[in-house]
Amino acid sequence: MTMKAFQDYYSENFASCFGCGRLNEHGLHIKSYWDGEESVCRFKPKHYHTGGFPGNVYGGLIASLMDCHGAGTAYAATYLKNGSKTDTDPASRYVTAALHVDYLAPTPMNETLELRGKVKEIRGRKVIVSMTLSVKETVCAKGELVMVRISEESLSE
Amino acid sequence: MTMKAFQDYYSENFASCFGCGRLNEHGLHIKSYWDGEESVCRFKPKHYHTGGFPGNVYGGLIASLMDCHGAGTAYAATYLKNGSKTDTDPASRYVTAALHVDYLAPTPMNETLELRGKVKEIRGRKVIVSMTLSVKETVCAKGELVMVRISEESLSE
Questions:
Q1: Closest Cα to residue B30, out of B3, B6, B46, B59?
Q2: What is the pLDDT of residues A83-108, one digit of tens each?
Q3: In 3-state terms, what secondary structure has residue A68?
Q4: How large is the average pLDDT for residues B131-144?
Q5: Nearest Cα to B35, choosing from B126, B114, B96?
Q6: Which of A65, A26, A25, A31 is nearest to A45 (CA)?
Q7: What is the percent of chain B with per-residue pLDDT over 70, rounded to a whole number?
Q8: Which of A8, A61, A66, A101 is most worth mutating to test chain B (most B CB atoms within 10 A of its CB)?
Q9: Inter-CA distances, A82 with A39, A76, B59, B142, Å
């Protein structure tokens, strides 16, 4: 049995995100899971995801992965328990209010990137998620995201 | 005569960035120019650059555009004058040390996004760039970037 990722629970109308939507044919299709208290997402960049220097990963990809993994983590922290849905308000999603990334070291190409998220705070409709992006044992970037819960209804307006 | 963009001056070895490298076949190829004291970049997202909700642009794309336009602005602020190179240290590039994005309003699809950058501070090897991303008259996101100058030599190490 394959474990479902956070993004596999997104409802069909809201599964079109370039970064994490399973229905976006051209997208990155990132997948996030719980690993104890942390959320984890592993992603292997494509050969063309290079930055200014060909041997390093493009900084925009790193921000993009953090954005979508952060949204998934906020969703899972409030709506998923142990890989299955809770029954409270399932028709909600998180959007990013703020994203901060510190680039600490060049991120090498041809490696699997590991993102690890931690829920720092849940306050009302806001979830604060902190994050690292590592290659093997090296933390290449750190991030912090402010996610805000909105109902799917308000997204459709 | 077509005016050259900031990115057209990047040396060949460092023009492979997915966001702004003219030699990346799969990339976004953003182009940045001066408009008085501000740097400007206009970009029309592809149909697949959607966020969780299909009518809005993917937040990761917004962060990516800011990242590359910020790097271009820092480069141009120190090495380009009126669309031509200065002769001081041309073999340097800027990398992103920190990126902060505040998402203020949904960014609609099927529109041209306009990014405007301003150099807030130049201090030693650091350039701080502030930025807006607008659709027509609406500012959809604001950003601030800390860019750090490095020599191409150190990138190759």
A1: B6
A2: 666 645 555 789 999 999 999 999 99
A3: helix
A4: 97
A5: B114
A6: A65
A7: 87
A8: A101
A9: 12, 9, 28, 36
pLDDT of residue B85: 66
Q: Where are the domains of chain A?
A: 6-156
B59 interaction partners in chain A (CB closer than 8 Å): 19, 64, 67, 95-96, 99
Chain A residues with CB-CB distance to B64 below 8 A? 58-61, 63-64
Q: Please, what is the angle between helix A59-79 and helix B59-79, to 10°? A: 150
Query: Nearest CA of chain B to the CA of A92: how many Å?
Result: 11
To the nearest whole Å, the CA of A57 is away from the closest chain B CA by 9
- CATH homologous superfamily of A6-156 equals Hotdog Thioesterase (3.10.129.10)
Tokens of B148: 């750090």
The minimal CB distance from A17 to the residues B10, B15, B58 is found for B58
Asked if pLDDT for residue A1 goes beyond 60, the answer is no
Rounded CA separation B146/A102 (Å)? 9
**Residue for token digits 């070291």?**
A105
The mean pLDDT value for A28-47 works out to 96
How many CA atoms lie less than 13 Å away from A110 in the CB half-sphere? 2
Task: With 0.95 as the threshold, say if the pTM is over it.
Answer: no
Q: What is the pLDDT of residue B154?
A: 63
Question: How many whole angstroms separate alpha carbon B68 and alpha carbon B22?
Answer: 12
pLDDT (tens digit, 9 = 90+) per residue, A60-87? 999 999 999 999 999 999 887 656 666 4
SS3 A79: helix
What pLDDT shows up at residue B106?
A: 95
